[in-house]
Amino acid sequence: MESWANLDFHLDLSGPGGLRHRLTASLREAVRSARLPPGTRLPASRSLAADLGIARNTVAEAYAELVAEGWLTARQGSGTVVAQRVEPPPPKTRRVIGPAVQFDLSESAPDVTEFPRTEWIRSTRRALTAAPAEAFGPGDPQGRIELRTALAEYLARARGVRADPERIVVCSGFADGIRMFNRLLKPPVVVEEYGLQFHQSLWTATEPLLVDEHGANTEQLPDDRRAVVLTPAHQFPLGGPLHPRRRASAVEWARRVGGVVLEDDYDGEFRYDRQPVGAVQGLDPEHVVYLGTSSKALSPALRIAWMVLPDRFVDPILALKTDREQYISMLDQLTLADFLECGAYDSHVRRMRLEYQRRRDRLVEAVSPYVKVSGIAAGMHAVLETPHDEAIVQMARERGIEVSPLSWFRHEQSDDDRTGIVISFGQPAFPRALPLFTEVLAACC
Amino acid sequence: MESWANLDFHLDLSGPGGLRHRLTASLREAVRSARLPPGTRLPASRSLAADLGIARNTVAEAYAELVAEGWLTARQGSGTVVAQRVEPPPPKTRRVIGPAVQFDLSESAPDVTEFPRTEWIRSTRRALTAAPAEAFGPGDPQGRIELRTALAEYLARARGVRADPERIVVCSGFADGIRMFNRLLKPPVVVEEYGLQFHQSLWTATEPLLVDEHGANTEQLPDDRRAVVLTPAHQFPLGGPLHPRRRASAVEWARRVGGVVLEDDYDGEFRYDRQPVGAVQGLDPEHVVYLGTSSKALSPALRIAWMVLPDRFVDPILALKTDREQYISMLDQLTLADFLECGAYDSHVRRMRLEYQRRRDRLVEAVSPYVKVSGIAAGMHAVLETPHDEAIVQMARERGIEVSPLSWFRHEQSDDDRTGIVISFGQPAFPRALPLFTEVLAACC
Q1: S-S: A17 plus which of A21, A177, B99, B324, CB 3.0-4.6 Å?
Q2: Interface of B with A in 173-192 (CB under 8 A)
């Protein structure tokens, strides 16, 4: 099948959740109701993505999810096809194409138009000119020593992390780190009741921990669990910092039960009202795994993240990493090491901090007649405390703006009922989208 | 435990197989015989590696294998520890440390001292200056369109591949590709009876195919299998090309059974006696997956490889890739695209072709009084037809030279009994090691 148009039925992209979630739900419903009968060959992801005006990525993810659930099959020789199922009800036909997304503010991401190209090119030249020949060989699965050394210095200075280069492992992203720890830790892993669903889904099993105005309630960490994932500097997505008492409780719990805290410090450098609070890892490097990334401060195109590990995890993680043979470009690692050491990383963070602070101020000013902005002045996203959310998300979508309802980040076992809108102000589209989005709030709140 | 010395027993690194294999075997035997009693904490991989004068990588791989086999445990809180087992026999004590490796010629790898730094830096500058802003965003899991376009042109021209950028998926290495196909193809997968054990171990199950003087015997491909992995341009490691009749048979088989040929074209550009034979993929792009890499022609530090897929595999592979979120650095992809387009890739391949040809000629000249060199004039490694191999490998090791016995590459279900030595002449250490190695041959053959 070359185009969705041939399917001749309604693809309803309205409803709660992000684009991918809605597309998945809509396709699932179409299969369940046999509007897409067994054996139907779905359009190629690029063609469906083009028809709907969304990223091919989103379509591929939806297909993958439905394959995993058994609704679709994606085996050799047949493309993506609706699985054979029993008792299909008679098909109905309708046809509408969802509206195209103009401004995607649904993901907390940096403004990539600000990537420091000149400084990066300069660091590439310096790093590759000075590199020893072995740097062009297959390399160390742990990561280049130059990068680990530069990170140890930077993380100690900027984030209060107690880091030894021998304890640092370079990986391709937070997801990469989760996958490795998922093989080392006994499920279920405790996670904050609000967070990235994508990350939660990488664990074999998770259990939610309540989050209130002091952050995740680490005083309630169960003694029969051994691992908790926290976002202490800036709860994602709610936006609060973890209270000092709760920070101490988390570490005390880990010591008491012989467990570990996985500290996701995704945007720890970006605090606008005061100096950022240091990493929890500084309290007890033997019970906290610190996870950081270049994706927020610099660019997700690099695919470079890092873990600072308690000693007992170094060998198990290296064994897994070696086994997977998924190393990170050694050339980028050398360049990033130079970029950190010459001060370009700090300058870029400083510059972007001012820029994001300005944008957050604009957001607060624009929306304050209608809603309260919760959380601290930090990061690249904010939560608007709206009395309801799905209608707002739907109205925004009709104007080409994609934002996320808070419910989209809620753990399935949580019975919290907060409502809100999560909006990213890091995206380059933000300034243009803000006036349009404010009109939506004016109409709804 | 801080050092191997504290273990106070003999670590015997002699015997067949590569270093990793021997270390694994030796540790396994030590656990089995309880010379390493249950609960013993092993030294950290870096400390053992330093004691033995081998790569940390090798130690970490050995640990990982023994964890997978259940001899060791690597769980939280305990480092790498000998697993609890029943009936340990009484421990014996001995102690010897294996010899250090000076010249590692055991892996077919390019001479990384020749990496074209200046040209690469130039391409980085051009590519990053010209890139659109979205290039610094999270990017397309399929790979940058600039790189896929450049690869399509290059592969058609240099390797006779029928490539459409929409059919190309960028991945981090051949292992990455195997892992994805392992989730799509029904086991067992047919593999050549000689090949990289590391690659074979990534498949759920494999079955060997005989290899003779015409290459893999594709006329014997069983009708009840659906996938075969071949190295048609230059059988790895035996070194022969796949006979034209066998190339045709492979494709006919795939058509007949609805199967697929996975064509590993790892060093297809490097043929010295004539123009390289084009890829089998050109015969039937709908039944052959073409796999290529920058690791041999340029550098394994880049971690960039590519697959050219039959249409029916594009969506399933993209779904898997998206799900894993293991993208390749977008900046390196842009740089490689420029590097290909400006002709620097071709120049580098041409230059290295001459260099490797010279080295192969030197190898043939040096060893021909003692042994025959089999296979075509191609690639970065050769097989010496020795009447036995383990004694030669052992003698070479005593002089600090690491080469591999052919048996190390043999499929466990193969009952072939060829002997030989696999030696890499791509490694920078080759010129210095050759005279020493020739002395070993003079003494043994």
Answers
A1: A21
A2: 173, 175-176, 184-185
